[in-house]
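name: query_chain
kind: protein
chains: 1
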Amino acid sequence: MTTGKKIDVDKIDLEELGEKAVENPGLVSFAHSIGGAAIKPTDVGKVKGRAMAAMQEQTDEQLKLLYEQMQTIARQAKEIKLRIRVSERIYLAKMGFEPIIGKVYFLYEKEQQEVLSMISPEEWGSRMPFDAWLASVKLRSDHTWEIIEAGDL
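structure:
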């Protein structure tokens, strides 16, 4: 697609063209020629600020999740410690039978001695031979005792 016009190289003003472009275009932070795309410098502070805000939000969420998990673990540890204490008390209590896993039993106190019974306080009614009902407990498969309902424990 030539128009047939010849370019006269002698008539080209190289100095004028040099003023319209830069020598090392890769080193400037603006368009290097008149027809070049506009280059807007970014505000580095804004970019870093947004990145820091996103990082803070993400790490705060992760820390919150870890804190909730720690609370759950701490609660479970307290429950296990309580089961251990109750289990030790039950195994030191007077027991006239062999407990069955999964069954509910009743821990009483009589004359400062703890007693495990198969009979509930409701079944005893007013004839209850114990000084106090301490708890309703269930034997778990790991042979610890779970408190179903606490009385004077």
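note: DSSP finds three helices and five strands in the chain.
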